[in-house]
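Design request, tokens follow.
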């Protein structure tokens, strides 16, 4: 792929640019932000690490959308992050205005792109991008499930003292307090985690996963997580650019899958060069399906509150 644009040169945006460059996933990366000098300075700084890190990717910063023209993938990270005491939903109206204006300009200059949404509240912002862009649903993908799953896998690995390489898991649902870690699909070397941990321990780890974002917000105080979120976004880019057909939990627009209609929600999707190439419908327990529907309903209620 020739060009990837990252809208928002803040913590998540700049770290994503760095990770993409170091993995040489595209020829060119453009960082765009409303703050003059910020994307230019960060882009040049990252680019200057190329001779040491040995990447040839060109990285530029700009405040003008014409410089983002013909991007194949656009990652939207522009918006406010959470501060202590805030939920992701508290960001909704401010970030909806930002994501709306960014999407309008992105679509004008890169009408064929795939959009990876990162801004919070994630599922609602993915809807804003879908509605404003008029793109087909497979070209708007929300990043959340990979991050939530990564946190869940790490906490399991810490508890069990087993390499994260051998721990598979799946966290579905909206990116918020109602996310749904699937215990039945969480395995160690192929064996369900219930064989390794009792119910109380699993519950504790699930709770820590649900609060994984706020745990970091409370430490940082002035912003939210960005190292792990940027890794998750880059994993999605990698799957799309290399047409890997990976099965990853992402936020997707659902039209009847899992009995959920007209909302974004985290589900396993097949990611390839077209974006979301398939939504995978796992067999869920009655409780898990219920929890997924409740989670999707939360997103749906927030979408209805939007004034676009
Ligand atoms: N989906 C997830 O799992 C996840 C994880 C982490 C962060 N986030 C979200 O990602 C967003 C970014 O987080 P961050 O830590 O990088 O915040 P940040 O404050 O460091 O960066 C945000 C950047 O967006 C820019 N911006 C604001 N309005 C803009 C506009 N109209 N056009 C272009 N740029 C604009 C700001 O100038 C700033 O540089 C937040 O909404 C945060 O909640 C989501």
């Amino acid at each position: 792929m020739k060009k990837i644009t990252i809208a928002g040169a803040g913590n998540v945006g700049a770290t994503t640019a760095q990770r993409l460059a170091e993995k040489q996933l595209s020829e060119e990366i453009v960082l765009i932000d409303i703050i003059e000098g910020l994307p230019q300075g960060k882009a040049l700084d990252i680019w200057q690490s190329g001779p040491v890190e040995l990447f040839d990717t060109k990285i530029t910063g700009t405040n003008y959308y014409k410089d983002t023209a013909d991007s194949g993938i656009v990652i939207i990270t522009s918006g406010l992050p959470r501060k202590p005491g805030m939920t992701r939903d508290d960001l909704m109206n401010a970030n909806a205005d930002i994501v709306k204006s960014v999407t309008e300009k992105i679509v004008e200059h890169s009408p064929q792109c795939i959009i990876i949404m990162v801004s919070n509240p994630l599922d609602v912002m993915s809807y804003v991008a879908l509605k404003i862009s008029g793109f087909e649903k497979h070209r708007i993908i929300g990043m959340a499930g990979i991050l939530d799953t990564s946190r869940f896998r790490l906490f399991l690995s810490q508890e069990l003292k087993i390499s994260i390489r051998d721990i598979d898991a799946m966290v579905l649902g909206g990116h918020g307090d109602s996310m749904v870690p699937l215990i039945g699909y969480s395995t160690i070397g192929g064996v369900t985690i219930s064989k390794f941990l009792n119910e109380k321990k699993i519950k504790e780890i699930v709770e820590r996963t649900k609060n994984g974002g706020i745990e970091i917000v409370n430490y940082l105080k002035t912003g939210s997580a960005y190292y792990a979120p940027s890794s998750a976004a880059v994993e999605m880019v990698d799957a799309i650019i290399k047409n890997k057909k990976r099965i990853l939990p992402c936020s997707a627009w659902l039209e009847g899958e899992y009995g959920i209609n007209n909302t974004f929600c985290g589900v396993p999707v097949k990611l390839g060069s077209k974006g979301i190439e398939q939504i995978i419908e796992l067999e869920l327990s009655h409780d898990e399906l219920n929890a997924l529907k409740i989670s999707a309903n939360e997103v749906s209620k927030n979408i209805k509150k939007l004034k676009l």
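Comment from the thread starter after seeing the answer: thanks! Residues 30 and 67 are 8 Å apart (CA to CA).
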